[in-house]
Write a structure and sequence with these properties.
The chain has 2 domains: 46 residues, no CATH class; 316 residues, Alpha/Beta hydrolase fold, catalytic domain (Rossmann fold, 3-Layer(aba) Sandwich). Helix content is 38%, strand content 12%. Strands 1-2-7-9-13 form a 5-stranded parallel sheet, with helices on both faces. It has a two-stranded antiparallel sheet with strand order 3-4. It has a two-stranded antiparallel ribbon with strand order 5-6. The longest helix has 30 residues. The N terminus is likely disordered.
Length: 384
């Protein structure tokens, strides 16, 4: 089921317009051999993707980065990305705030899932791959965490935040779900900057960015996959974002001036945001206290102070927690705001709190986004 869903979703970007498969059509799209090279598309890449000239003609592909999205593209998403009605009913019956391990295994694992973009810090030897491995071990589909461009489990924090905002928009249009953001250290700063980009704090428009081609498209709006109406990239909303040990001192030292005053302000371009801080964190610039995050409007913002045993550089190292039955059970039963004694185990539990809290939020918004997409599909099927 997951493989079939994934194949359908991978086909979505290629069914948005028609192509004649001729040199004239390519020329009309403004694509030259040099453009293909710039987009890093080679004969080998096409072979690896098992896409032949005949396959292009069969699906009616237009390779045109400047194409304007239309209502057909939006409806194609809702019509083609489908599971059986009984599976949809099981998803709709879930309570997002009370997702059990069985719900993940038996229900959510067989439905749609938003992409998760995990942004690592500025030190390249500390990546978010262990955190991604934790999420996969807990039941999140690996294909929704991997970077489709290079297959990695961790995104560099040197990425341009505006380009990343454009990538989120592309995914929203083509897959029907806005990705979630997890950032560690400088990666948390990038995640927050993306929220400000989407809020229009740096520019009035943002180009849509194609993550498969690694290039911007010649447009600044998408077709909303639910309403079928065109809407600008600026103003789109992320379901969930979180920042781990993100401080102002590195922004000052690295000359990231535009984020100094915005780093603790969370705009309305996210439904729910959680900030994790260490009171004693010289790397982040915390010396006995940490400045809380605050909403500038309607975003739901929570602040959690991590236990003294947690360390800035090792916060992503949580994969072992999913492998230990006792810590995994504690994580599965965790609910924010409830007091549950820590398990007595040999496994290091310094990272248990933020691992459990992030997994709780991811399960919740995974469920909410899947339910939203199912309801939209049913409205379309019913003509409403």
């Amino acid at each position: 089921m997951r493989a079939r869903l994934r194949l359908r979703r991978m086909a979505l970007p290629y069914a948005r317009a028609a192509v004649r498969g001729s040199v004239v059509a390519f020329a009309a799209a403004g694509l030259s051999v040099a453009a293909f090279a710039a987009a890093r598309l080679s004969v080998a890449a096409f072979a690896a993707a098992r896409l032949s000239v005949a396959a292009f003609a069969a699906v009616g592909l237009t390779v045109a980065t400047g194409a304007i999205a239309d209502e057909g593209a939006s409806r194609f998403v809702l019509e083609r990305v489908g599971i059986d009605a009984a599976s949809e009913d099981r998803v709709l019956a879930l309570v997002p705030e009370r997702i059990s391990a069985g719900d993940v295994r038996d229900v959510l694992a067989h439905t749609y899932a938003p992409r998760i973009i995990s942004l690592q810090g500025s030190v390249p030897i500390v990546t978010m791959a262990p955190f991604a491995e934790f999420l996969i071990a807990m039941g999140y589909p690996a294909e929704e965490i991997r970077n489709p461009y290079d297959g990695s489990l961790s995104y560099s924090s040197s990425v341009d935040a505006r380009a990343l905002a454009g990538i989120l928009a592309w995914y929203d249009e083509h897959e029907g779900m806005m990705p979630m953001l997890i950032g560690h250290s400088q990666g948390g700063m990038v995640a927050i900057k993306v929220l400000h980009e989407l809020a229009g704090d740096f520019a009035s428009s943002i180009p849509v960015w194609n993550p498969r081609l690694g290039a911007a498209e010649d447009r600044t709006a998408i077709v909303d996959p639910v309403t079928g109406k065109e809407r600008p990239v600026v103003g789109l909303k992320v379901p969930y974002a979180t920042a781990l040990a993100t401080g102002k001192l590195p922004r000052l030292l690295l000359g990231q001036w535009t984020m100094l005053t915005r780093l603790r302000e969370i705009p309305d371009t996210v439904d729910e945001f959680t900030g994790f801080s260490l009171e004693w964190d010289p790397i982040a610039g915390n010396f006995g206290t940490s400045e809380p995050y605050r909403a500038t409007g309607t975003a739901k913002v929570r602040n959690l102070t991590l236990p003294p045993g947690a360390s800035h550089l090792t916060l992503p190292q949580v994969a072992e927690l999913a492998r230990d039955p006792a810590t995994r059970d504690w994580i599965d039963r965790y609910v924010p705001g409830t007091a549950v004694p820590l398990p007595t185990v040999h496994t290091d539990t310094a990272n248990l709190l933020h691992a459990a809290d992030i997994w709780y939020s991811i399960k919740k918004h995974w469920c909410l986004e899947a339910q939203r997409l199912i309801r939209a599909r049913r409205r379309l099927a019913g003509g409403g």
